[in-house]
Amino acid sequence: MVTLNPPGSPQQATRGRTRIQTTRGYRVFQVCNALILTAVVVVTLYPFVNIVAQSFSSESAITSGHVNVLPKGFNLTTYKKVMSDSAFWQNYRNTVVYTVVATGISMVLTTCYAYVLSKRHLKGRKVLIAIAMFTMFFNGGLIPNYVLVSDLGLRNTIWAIVLPNAVSVFNLLVMKAFFESMPAELEEAAAVDGLSTYGTLARVVLPLSKAVLATMVLFYAVSFWNSWFSAFLYMDRSDLFPVTVYLRNLIAGASGGTDQSAASDTALQIASNIQAVTIVLTVIPILTIYPFIQRYFVKGVMLGAVKG
Q1: What pTM did the predictor assign?
Q2: Short-list 165, 150, 175, CA closest to 105
Q3: Between the CA of residue 111 and those of 27, 30, 169, 302, what are the distances in Å?
Q4: How far apart are CA 295 and CA 215, in angstroms?
Q5: Is the separation of the CB atoms in 174 and 304 below 8 Å?
Q6: What is the pLDDT of residues 143-181, one digit of tens each?
Q7: Spatial distance between the Cα atoms of 252 and 241, rounded to a whole number of angstroms
């Protein structure tokens, strides 16, 4: 027999108060959350907005510290100067080639390695995982790596940038966890249909892994695009530098100018403006690509991390 509480009963009043309290608490949480996230967004975006404003400002306004979020003394001369520099575009082209090749190789190696590690019945699986984890915390050091790359004849080649950083252990573990979360029945059905291991990976697993694949492509592409130390260390020819080394040389030149006499102040001001312009032109490709894969970003990481 079901007993209904009358509208004015103590039970109904208690539920009403609980509902009001929950609603108020949730609203307070929403307000605090919105304020905190807004502050984080402002702190995160301000440096980039400031750089964009500097790129359109005059050199004197930059060095005098008058540029914040809006340009002062609107100026497009530096954009024209940088975009007319053949060295900049050559280094820019190198960066595109390095990023595309390195990301492609890294995705193939990481995907295959992660797919192997996701098979719990594989003999020696724990050893392979231990090897990957060991490299996450320990490495040979800068000098041994330099000697190894030099002895292999990789200096002044694209492979000096691509091969030493081809597999990120963090990305590997995320992809491994994602593959482990997939139903085993899918691969069993593919095996019954006569697909090989590689056929199952290519025709069943990868089409269902678009979210994590897009996320890993973003991780690798941003990492290789922003990388400069490997090229700075292993390359001697300026025509092989990526655009990040071009930018680094600008910053180093500007820093060196601070020790010169007052006659170098103008050169320092121009260098500051060129730095801002180069930074803006460098990040444009990443800003252009990100919106197309942003919807996969959170989904890919969460599926790989939580379900694993």
Answers
A1: 0.77
A2: 165
A3: 43, 39, 12, 17
A4: 9
A5: yes
A6: 989 999 999 999 999 999 999 889 999 999 989 988 888
A7: 15
